[in-house]
TrEMBL record:
<feature type="transmembrane region" description="Helical">
    <location>
        <begin position="12"/>
        <end position="32"/>
    </location>
</feature>
<dbReference type="InterPro" id="IPR050809">
    <property type="entry name" value="UgpAE/MalFG_permease"/>
</dbReference>
<feature type="transmembrane region" description="Helical">
    <location>
        <begin position="156"/>
        <end position="180"/>
    </location>
</feature>
<keyword id="KW-1133">Transmembrane helix</keyword>
<keyword id="KW-0997">Cell inner membrane</keyword>
<keyword id="KW-0813">Transport</keyword>
<feature type="transmembrane region" description="Helical">
    <location>
        <begin position="201"/>
        <end position="227"/>
    </location>
</feature>
<dbReference type="GO" id="GO:0005886">
    <property type="term" value="C:plasma membrane"/>
</dbReference>
<keyword id="KW-0472">Membrane</keyword>
<feature type="transmembrane region" description="Helical">
    <location>
        <begin position="266"/>
        <end position="287"/>
    </location>
</feature>
<feature type="transmembrane region" description="Helical">
    <location>
        <begin position="114"/>
        <end position="136"/>
    </location>
</feature>
<comment type="similarity">
    <text>Belongs to the binding-protein-dependent transport system permease family.</text>
</comment>
<protein>
    <recommendedName>
        <fullName>sn-glycerol-3-phosphate transport system permease protein UgpA</fullName>
    </recommendedName>
</protein>
<comment type="function">
    <text>Part of the ABC transporter complex UgpBAEC involved in sn-glycerol-3-phosphate (G3P) import. Probably responsible for the translocation of the substrate across the membrane.</text>
</comment>
<keyword id="KW-0812">Transmembrane</keyword>
<dbReference type="InterPro" id="IPR000515">
    <property type="entry name" value="MetI-like"/>
</dbReference>
<feature type="domain" description="ABC transmembrane type-1">
    <location>
        <begin position="71"/>
        <end position="283"/>
    </location>
</feature>
Length: 293
């Protein structure tokens, strides 16, 4: 007969939740409420003088062609980073899950990039592909490609996508590998006995059983692309050239910190927050239906 533990102290569950609730309120709800209120104000660059202007910041924001361009850039950037980081990590995880002699070392090397800060990762990739001094830009010039992410918009986008994907692969790899190791070997062996080839076993058995992990990583990667890639973009291109790599989160920083438009920057952050919440809700509402738990 199984024994159950009963806590007589009714306050204990609330005390255990209190640290997390405090962190959530202090670092999420309070800044979010401040951003919403600030989006209705017009302030000077130092935030000392403010005036309530209602929806003027939002009206001015949607009148800017640059803001719509940052939206398009964010869509392209987020789609490329999420798709590439998830697919490459899944490929590496399936290879690491095999019986290889150097599997532990391989797994360790795959995890290391996750410990690198986004800004540091951006600097590393920038120095590797710096037009005049980069060790990888010279071979590109030798192949006849005039590589210059400082002037060419497409090259700049490719560079920040590569840096962001490289940074996120390790995180996705960890969860995919854990999900693969949790799949019972008897299920895969049964598929092999039925005559299913490795590729067919992957798409009909392995990948459906990985759907909870894939769904979780899809949500996490969307949040990563929208927020955590700021350091990479700032270190690699600074949003340039000519705003080609200015995503929505970087525009919040550029307009608020560099441009001194605190009210407009707050309005952008509110819109960005609404978009991320909406995307997450859509994923839970529609994508999760195809997840097999």
């Amino acid at each position: 007969m199984e024994k159950s533990t009963v806590f007589n102290n009714r306050l204990l569950p609330y005390l255990l939740l209190l640290p997390q609730l405090v962190i959530t309120v202090v670092f999420f709800y309070w800044p979010a409420s401040q951003a919403i209120w600030q989006s209705f104000l017009r302030e000077d660059a130092f935030g000392l003088v403010s005036e309530f202007v209602g929806l003027e910041n939002y009206q001015a924001l949607f009148a800017q062609p640059e803001y719509y361009r940052s939206m398009l850039t964010t869509v392209i950037f987020s789609t490329l980073v999420a798709a590439l980081s998830l697919s490459i990590a899944l490929l590496f995880a399936t290879q690491a899950d095999k019986n290889l002699k150097a599997a532990p070392a391989y797994k360790t090397l795959m995890i290391w990039p996750y410990a690198v800060a986004p800004a540091v990762a951006g600097v590393l990739w920038f120095f590797m592909f710096q037009p005049s001094l980069g060790m990888l830009s010279r071979p590109l010039r030798g192949m006849g490609l005039d590589w210059n992410p400082l002037l060419n918009e497409n090259h700049a986008m490719i560079l920040v996508v590569m840096a962001a994907v490289w940074k996120q692969i390790s995180y996705n790899f960890l969860f995919f590998l854990a999900g693969l190791q949790a799949i019972p070997r008897s299920v895969l062996e049964a598929g092999a006995i039925d005559g299913a080839r490795p590729l067919r076993r992957f798409w009909t058995i392995t990948f459906p059983l990985l759907s909870p992990t894939t769904f979780f990583l899809l949500v996490v990667n969307i949040v990563y692309v929208f927020f955590d890639t700021f350091g990479i973009i700032d270190a690699v291109t600074g949003g340039g050239p000519a705003g080609a790599t200015t995503t929505m989160v970087y525009k919040v920083y550029a307009d608020g910190r560099l441009g001194g438009d605190l009210g407009g920057s707050a309005a952008q952050s509110v819109i960005l927050m609404i978009i991320v919440i909406a995307l997450t809700a859509i994923q839970f509402r529609y994508v999760e239906r195809k997840v097999q738990y």
